[in-house]
Amino acid sequence: MSVIETRLAELGLTLPQASAPAANYVPYVKTGNLVIVSGQITMLNGELKYLGHVGKDLTTEQAYAAAKLCGLNLIAQVKAACDGDLDRVKRVVRLGGFVSCTPDFVDHPKVINGASDLMAEVFGQAGHHARAAVGVASLPLGVSVEVEGMFEIE
């Protein structure tokens, strides 16, 4: 078992199956030593979770959990891009987080911390990254959070 797989197990985390794209795009692109992962939503075992707007239908804490699920889906895509070997990840370079929320909601960073905290827990120092956290009026399929990522690999 790889170092990262062991860490995931120690954290009690199971990666979901990497989802196939839902439209005319690919789930990730490898270029040089980078893997750019398309936006991952709150899909778990083929079922959408955490639907609605943060600040109306979901609390900040629920949205944090939604962002963490998006982060797990990101890691699953990176695993697929690395032919199953997460130890090839050298660095989480950047995350971009989108929060479907009410117009008066201002805690976007607290929500996207769900994905950011996960990366640090799983990848240690290599999990610290640049980031954007943005509020939007809606997201695909009515999900509350979407997160995209860029990873450096060996």
- The total domain count is 1
Which stretches of 5+ consecutive residues score pLDDT under 50? none
Rg, Å, rounded = 15 Å
| Strand count | 7
How much β-strand is present in the residues? 25-35%
Structural class by helix and strand composition: alpha+beta
Biggest β-sheet: strands ordered side by side in the sheet = 1-2-7-5-6
CATH class: Alpha Beta
In CATH terms, what is the fold-level topology?
Answer: 60s Ribosomal Protein L30, Chain: A
Q: What is the mean predicted local confidence, pLDDT?
A: 97
H and E order: HEEEEHEHEE
- For this structure, the quaternary state is single chain
Q: What is the CA–CA distance across the termini?
A: 18 Å
Major beta sheet, specifics? 5 strands, mixed
CATH architecture: 2-Layer Sandwich
Tally of helical runs = 3
CATH superfamily: RutC-like
Q: Estimate the global geometry from the Cα principal axes.
A: globular
Helix content: 25-40%
Strands, helices and their partners?
Elements: H1 3-10, E1 28-31, E2 34-40, E3 43-44, E4 47-48, H2 60-81, E5 89-100, H3 108-123, E6 130-136, E7 145-153
Parallel strand pairs: 5-6
Antiparallel strand pairs: 1-2, 2-7, 3-4, 5-7
